[in-house]
Design a protein that fits this description.
By secondary structure, the protein is of the alpha/beta class. Helices cover 39% and strands 23% of the residues. It is built from 9 helices and 10 strands. Helix 8 runs antiparallel to helix 9. The protein is globular. The N terminus is likely disordered.
Length: 255
Protein backbone atom coordinates (compact mmCIF):
# COMPACT_ATOMS: atom_id res chain seq x y z
CA UNK A 1 0.00 0.00 0.00
CA UNK A 2 2.99 2.37 0.40
CA UNK A 3 3.05 3.00 -3.36
CA UNK A 4 -0.02 5.22 -2.88
CA UNK A 5 1.65 7.65 -0.49
CA UNK A 6 2.87 10.04 -3.22
CA UNK A 7 -0.39 10.37 -5.10
CA UNK A 8 -2.12 13.71 -5.52
CA UNK A 9 -5.64 12.29 -5.81
CA UNK A 10 -7.75 10.06 -3.58
CA UNK A 11 -11.10 8.65 -4.68
CA UNK A 12 -13.46 7.97 -1.78
CA UNK A 13 -16.61 5.88 -1.84
CA UNK A 14 -19.03 5.12 1.02
CA UNK A 15 -20.79 1.79 0.59
CA UNK A 16 -23.96 0.39 2.11
CA UNK A 17 -25.92 -2.51 0.61
CA UNK A 18 -24.80 -1.55 -2.89
CA UNK A 19 -24.15 -4.96 -4.42
CA UNK A 20 -26.61 -4.47 -7.30
CA UNK A 21 -24.49 -1.75 -8.94
CA UNK A 22 -21.23 -1.77 -7.01
CA UNK A 23 -19.17 -3.64 -9.60
CA UNK A 24 -20.19 -1.20 -12.33
CA UNK A 25 -19.22 1.74 -10.14
CA UNK A 26 -15.85 0.26 -9.20
CA UNK A 27 -15.07 -0.55 -12.83
CA UNK A 28 -15.87 3.02 -13.88
CA UNK A 29 -13.29 4.26 -11.36
CA UNK A 30 -10.60 1.72 -12.17
CA UNK A 31 -10.96 2.33 -15.91
CA UNK A 32 -10.20 6.06 -15.70
CA UNK A 33 -7.64 7.34 -18.19
CA UNK A 34 -6.12 9.24 -15.25
CA UNK A 35 -4.90 6.32 -13.17
CA UNK A 36 -2.59 7.87 -10.56
CA UNK A 37 -4.92 7.71 -7.56
CA UNK A 38 -5.69 5.75 -4.43
CA UNK A 39 -9.23 4.40 -4.11
CA UNK A 40 -10.63 4.34 -0.57
CA UNK A 41 -13.87 2.42 -0.04
CA UNK A 42 -15.58 2.26 3.36
CA UNK A 43 -18.35 -0.24 4.00
CA UNK A 44 -20.97 0.93 6.49
CA UNK A 45 -21.83 -2.55 7.81
CA UNK A 46 -23.68 -3.75 4.72
CA UNK A 47 -25.99 -6.72 5.15
CA UNK A 48 -25.47 -7.89 1.56
CA UNK A 49 -22.15 -8.95 -0.02
CA UNK A 50 -20.88 -5.43 -0.75
CA UNK A 51 -17.91 -5.79 1.60
CA UNK A 52 -16.86 -9.07 -0.04
CA UNK A 53 -17.03 -7.42 -3.47
CA UNK A 54 -14.76 -4.63 -2.24
CA UNK A 55 -12.24 -7.12 -0.88
CA UNK A 56 -12.30 -9.03 -4.16
CA UNK A 57 -11.32 -5.91 -6.12
CA UNK A 58 -8.73 -4.88 -3.53
CA UNK A 59 -6.93 -8.19 -3.98
CA UNK A 60 -6.48 -7.50 -7.69
CA UNK A 61 -5.71 -3.75 -7.65
CA UNK A 62 -3.23 -2.24 -5.21
CA UNK A 63 -4.79 1.22 -5.54
CA UNK A 64 -7.82 0.07 -3.55
CA UNK A 65 -7.95 0.36 0.24
CA UNK A 66 -10.98 -1.13 1.97
CA UNK A 67 -12.26 -0.27 5.44
CA UNK A 68 -15.36 -1.24 7.39
CA UNK A 69 -17.14 0.75 10.08
CA UNK A 70 -17.49 -0.92 13.47
CA UNK A 71 -21.20 -0.11 13.39
CA UNK A 72 -23.66 1.35 10.87
CA UNK A 73 -22.93 5.08 11.09
CA UNK A 74 -24.46 6.79 8.05
CA UNK A 75 -23.06 8.33 4.91
CA UNK A 76 -21.66 11.52 6.46
CA UNK A 77 -19.58 9.67 9.05
CA UNK A 78 -18.47 7.17 6.41
CA UNK A 79 -17.30 9.85 3.98
CA UNK A 80 -15.50 11.71 6.75
CA UNK A 81 -13.76 8.52 7.81
CA UNK A 82 -12.64 7.92 4.22
CA UNK A 83 -11.29 11.48 4.03
CA UNK A 84 -9.30 10.87 7.23
CA UNK A 85 -7.64 7.88 5.58
CA UNK A 86 -6.79 9.74 2.37
CA UNK A 87 -3.19 10.79 1.77
CA UNK A 88 -3.68 13.11 -1.20
CA UNK A 89 -4.13 16.81 -1.83
CA UNK A 90 -7.36 16.31 -3.77
CA UNK A 91 -10.42 14.16 -3.08
CA UNK A 92 -12.83 12.86 -5.73
CA UNK A 93 -16.14 11.62 -4.36
CA UNK A 94 -18.36 8.93 -5.82
CA UNK A 95 -21.42 7.14 -4.49
CA UNK A 96 -21.58 3.39 -4.81
CA UNK A 97 -24.26 3.29 -7.53
CA UNK A 98 -23.06 6.13 -9.77
CA UNK A 99 -20.73 5.94 -12.78
CA UNK A 100 -17.98 8.05 -14.31
CA UNK A 101 -17.07 8.41 -17.95
CA UNK A 102 -13.53 7.17 -18.47
CA UNK A 103 -12.07 10.68 -18.92
CA UNK A 104 -13.78 12.29 -15.93
CA UNK A 105 -10.76 12.53 -13.62
CA UNK A 106 -8.37 13.47 -16.43
CA UNK A 107 -10.51 16.42 -17.49
CA UNK A 108 -10.83 17.63 -13.92
CA UNK A 109 -7.11 17.36 -13.26
CA UNK A 110 -6.44 19.17 -16.54
CA UNK A 111 -8.75 21.99 -15.45
CA UNK A 112 -6.92 22.29 -12.12
CA UNK A 113 -3.59 22.42 -13.94
CA UNK A 114 -4.92 25.23 -16.13
CA UNK A 115 -6.54 27.07 -13.20
CA UNK A 116 -4.41 26.14 -10.16
CA UNK A 117 -6.39 28.47 -7.89
CA UNK A 118 -9.38 26.09 -8.21
CA UNK A 119 -10.42 24.55 -4.89
CA UNK A 120 -13.36 22.52 -6.17
CA UNK A 121 -14.38 21.16 -9.56
CA UNK A 122 -17.79 19.73 -10.49
CA UNK A 123 -19.26 18.43 -13.76
CA UNK A 124 -22.49 18.00 -15.64
CA UNK A 125 -24.46 14.79 -15.39
CA UNK A 126 -26.26 12.20 -17.45
CA UNK A 127 -28.88 9.99 -15.80
CA UNK A 128 -29.64 6.28 -15.66
CA UNK A 129 -32.36 4.45 -13.75
CA UNK A 130 -32.15 1.26 -11.72
CA UNK A 131 -32.93 -0.76 -14.86
CA UNK A 132 -29.86 0.83 -16.52
CA UNK A 133 -32.01 2.80 -18.96
CA UNK A 134 -30.37 6.09 -19.90
CA UNK A 135 -32.34 9.33 -19.92
CA UNK A 136 -32.06 11.74 -22.84
CA UNK A 137 -31.71 14.61 -20.38
CA UNK A 138 -28.30 16.08 -19.57
CA UNK A 139 -27.84 18.35 -16.57
CA UNK A 140 -25.88 21.42 -17.65
CA UNK A 141 -23.67 23.29 -15.19
CA UNK A 142 -22.11 26.77 -15.13
CA UNK A 143 -18.35 27.03 -15.58
CA UNK A 144 -18.12 29.12 -12.39
CA UNK A 145 -20.37 29.24 -9.33
CA UNK A 146 -20.18 31.28 -6.14
CA UNK A 147 -21.97 31.06 -2.78
CA UNK A 148 -25.05 33.09 -3.71
CA UNK A 149 -25.53 31.28 -7.03
CA UNK A 150 -25.17 27.88 -5.38
CA UNK A 151 -27.84 28.80 -2.83
CA UNK A 152 -30.34 28.93 -5.70
CA UNK A 153 -29.48 25.47 -7.02
CA UNK A 154 -27.00 22.80 -6.05
CA UNK A 155 -25.21 22.38 -9.38
CA UNK A 156 -22.43 20.33 -7.78
CA UNK A 157 -23.64 16.73 -7.74
CA UNK A 158 -21.68 14.92 -5.05
CA UNK A 159 -20.33 12.16 -7.30
CA UNK A 160 -19.03 14.77 -9.74
CA UNK A 161 -17.01 16.76 -7.22
CA UNK A 162 -13.23 16.86 -6.96
CA UNK A 163 -12.11 19.09 -4.09
CA UNK A 164 -9.02 19.94 -2.07
CA UNK A 165 -8.82 17.66 0.94
CA UNK A 166 -8.16 20.59 3.27
CA UNK A 167 -11.70 21.86 2.72
CA UNK A 168 -13.25 18.51 3.68
CA UNK A 169 -11.11 18.49 6.80
CA UNK A 170 -12.23 22.02 7.71
CA UNK A 171 -15.88 21.37 6.85
CA UNK A 172 -16.67 17.68 7.42
CA UNK A 173 -20.03 16.35 6.36
CA UNK A 174 -22.73 16.10 9.01
CA UNK A 175 -26.42 15.51 9.53
CA UNK A 176 -27.72 12.80 7.21
CA UNK A 177 -31.22 14.28 7.56
CA UNK A 178 -30.25 17.01 5.09
CA UNK A 179 -28.27 17.23 1.85
CA UNK A 180 -24.97 16.99 3.68
CA UNK A 181 -22.85 17.53 0.57
CA UNK A 182 -24.77 20.68 -0.40
CA UNK A 183 -24.08 22.12 3.07
CA UNK A 184 -20.36 21.48 2.63
CA UNK A 185 -20.20 23.10 -0.81
CA UNK A 186 -22.02 26.17 0.53
CA UNK A 187 -19.71 26.34 3.54
CA UNK A 188 -16.50 26.21 1.51
CA UNK A 189 -17.72 28.76 -1.04
CA UNK A 190 -18.87 31.09 1.74
CA UNK A 191 -15.35 30.78 3.14
CA UNK A 192 -13.79 31.91 -0.13
CA UNK A 193 -13.15 28.69 -2.07
CA UNK A 194 -13.15 28.90 -5.86
CA UNK A 195 -15.34 26.39 -7.70
CA UNK A 196 -15.24 25.68 -11.43
CA UNK A 197 -17.45 23.43 -13.51
CA UNK A 198 -16.99 21.30 -16.59
CA UNK A 199 -20.20 21.48 -18.60
CA UNK A 200 -20.02 17.89 -19.81
CA UNK A 201 -21.90 14.82 -18.49
CA UNK A 202 -18.82 13.17 -16.98
CA UNK A 203 -21.00 11.76 -14.18
CA UNK A 204 -23.73 9.23 -14.86
CA UNK A 205 -26.06 9.64 -11.91
CA UNK A 206 -28.27 6.72 -10.99
CA UNK A 207 -31.81 7.78 -10.10
CA UNK A 208 -33.41 5.59 -7.44
CA UNK A 209 -36.93 6.36 -6.27
CA UNK A 210 -36.08 5.59 -2.64
CA UNK A 211 -32.97 7.79 -2.58
CA UNK A 212 -32.83 11.15 -0.81
CA UNK A 213 -32.74 13.03 -4.10
CA UNK A 214 -35.25 10.71 -5.78
CA UNK A 215 -38.01 11.48 -3.23
CA UNK A 216 -38.96 15.04 -4.20
CA UNK A 217 -40.80 16.02 -1.01
CA UNK A 218 -38.10 14.53 1.20
CA UNK A 219 -35.48 16.34 -0.87
CA UNK A 220 -37.23 19.69 -0.38
CA UNK A 221 -37.29 19.17 3.38
CA UNK A 222 -33.59 18.38 3.35
CA UNK A 223 -32.83 21.49 1.31
CA UNK A 224 -34.75 23.62 3.81
CA UNK A 225 -32.66 22.16 6.63
CA UNK A 226 -29.50 23.04 4.69
CA UNK A 227 -30.58 26.67 4.45
CA UNK A 228 -31.38 26.68 8.16
CA UNK A 229 -28.00 25.06 8.91
CA UNK A 230 -26.29 27.83 6.92
CA UNK A 231 -27.89 30.43 9.20
CA UNK A 232 -30.26 32.00 6.68
CA UNK A 233 -33.18 33.89 8.18
CA UNK A 234 -36.75 32.77 7.49
CA UNK A 235 -37.35 35.10 4.55
CA UNK A 236 -34.05 34.15 2.91
CA UNK A 237 -34.89 30.48 3.37
CA UNK A 238 -38.24 31.01 1.65
CA UNK A 239 -36.60 32.92 -1.21
CA UNK A 240 -34.00 30.26 -1.91
CA UNK A 241 -36.47 27.41 -1.36
CA UNK A 242 -38.62 28.89 -4.15
CA UNK A 243 -35.63 28.87 -6.48
CA UNK A 244 -34.69 25.35 -5.35
CA UNK A 245 -38.20 24.04 -6.05
CA UNK A 246 -38.50 25.70 -9.46
CA UNK A 247 -35.10 24.47 -10.68
CA UNK A 248 -35.77 21.05 -9.18
CA UNK A 249 -39.07 20.71 -11.05
CA UNK A 250 -37.36 21.66 -14.31
CA UNK A 251 -34.54 19.19 -13.70
CA UNK A 252 -36.46 16.18 -12.46
CA UNK A 253 -39.29 16.75 -14.88
CA UNK A 254 -36.79 16.22 -17.69
CA UNK A 255 -35.21 13.00 -16.39
Amino acid sequence: MNNNAHKTLSVIMPVYNASDFLRQTIESVLNQTYSDFEFIAVDDCSTDNSYEILLEYARSDSRIKVYKNEKNSGVSYTRNFAVSKASSEYIALIDSDDLWTKDKLQKQMDLIEEYPETDMCYTGSAFVDTDSVMSDFVFRVPTVVDYKKLLKQNVASCSSVLIKREWLIKYPMAHDNMHEDFAVWLSVLKDGAIARGIDEPLLVYRVAKNSKSGNKFKSMGMAYRVYKYMGLNFFSRMYYMTSYIVTGIRKHGSI
